[in-house]
Amino acid sequence: MNLIIDIGNTLAKLALFNNEELVLIEKVTHEHFVNRALQLIAKHDIKQGILSSVILLKKEQIEKISKRISLLELQASVEVPFKNNYRTPNTLGVDRIALIAAAVCQFPNQNVLVIDAGTCITYDFVNSSGEYFGGAISPGIQMRYNAMHTFTSKLPQLELLETTTELTGNSTVNSMHSGVVNGVIGEIDNFVRRYKEKNGFLTVVLTGGDINFLANKLKIDIFAQPNFLLVGLNAILIHNNQ
Questions:
Q1: Cα separation values, 137 from 17, 52, 63, 140, 213, Å
Q2: Strands (E), the chain
Q3: Which residues form the catalytic set?
C-alpha cells in the first residue's frame, strides 16, 4: 500500500493506493495531517509513501512520518517518468510536476494539456514523446474576485455562485460575476484552441478545486479528473521504486 500526502495551499489530502488503484482519500487541515498519516500507517500495511507540499513544512513534521515508512519528498531532483525541459526546473511547482507525471502515465504517447483550476489556474503541456516544456499560470476564480475587491474602493467582495454564467450583467455584482466566470471560460477555451492549432491532436485534462463548476461550462472535450494530482504522485513513487 502506498501513502500519498499532498499539502495544498488550504488543505492537505491523504490517499492510499494499492499499486495504481486509489482505495482511500481524505482531506484534513494542515495541523492534523501528520497525526492522520500516522494513524493510517498504523492501520494499513503501508511500507512507502510520497509527500508533496506547496507550503513550507517543519522538519520535525516530515521526520515523524519518515521514521515509520520510507518517505519520498517530492522536489526538483526527484526522478520523474517524463523528460523535464523546463528552463528553471528548481522553480517548477511540485504540483505541476505531479500533474505531468499523471498525464504521461494515464495518456502515454499523446499530446496532453493539463488544466488545474485551483487557487491559480495552471496550464501544463507534455508532448507525445513525453517531453515537458512548461505552460502558463493565471489567477484562479476566487483570486480574481479577491483582487477586484482589494484593489478598488467600491467593488464588493464576492464568491463564486453556481448560477453566475450570464454574459451581460445587469448590476455591478452581476457584471463582476460575468467578468470573472466568462473571462476564465474564455481563457481556457483560447488556450486549448491555440495548443490544438500548434500540436494537432490534443488530450485535455481538467482538475483542481473548481473542476465541478467548470466541467460542464466549457465548450471543449475534456477528461475531468478530480484526483489527477494524487495519481501523478503515486506514479512518481512507483517510478522511483522500480
A1: 29, 19, 32, 9, 19
A2: 2-7, 12-18, 21-28, 48-53, 70-73, 83-84, 112-117, 120-126, 131-139, 203-207, 223-224
A3: 95
Question: How many residues in total does the chain contain?
Answer: 242
* CATH class of the region 1-73: alpha beta
**Angle, vertex CA 5, rays to CA 234 and CA 28, nearest 5:** 140
pLDDT tens, position by position, 114-151? 999 999 999 999 999 999 999 999 999 999 999 999 99
Q: How much is the pLDDT for 83?
A: 97
Q: How far apart are CA 211 and CA 224, in angstroms?
A: 7
Residue 62 pLDDT exceeds 90 = yes
Cα–Cα separations (whole angstroms), residue 126 to 102, 175, 204, 236: 11, 36, 11, 16
Q: pLDDT at position 175, please?
A: 94
What is the distance between the terminal CA atoms of the chain, rounded to a whole angstrom? 15
- Homologous superfamily, domain 76-242: ATPase, nucleotide binding domain (3.30.420.40)
pLDDT at 105 over 90: yes
- Give the tens place of pLDDT for each residue, 24-50: 999 999 999 999 999 999 999 899 999
Fold equal for 1-73 and 76-242: yes
Q: pLDDT band at residue 85, thresholds of 50, 70 and 90? A: very high
Domain extents in the chain: 1-73, 76-242
Q: Say if CB 199 and CB 126 are below 8 A apart.
A: no
For residues 77 and 172, what is the distance between their CA atoms, to the nearest angstrom? Answer: 48
Query: Quick one: cell of 121?
Result: 489556474
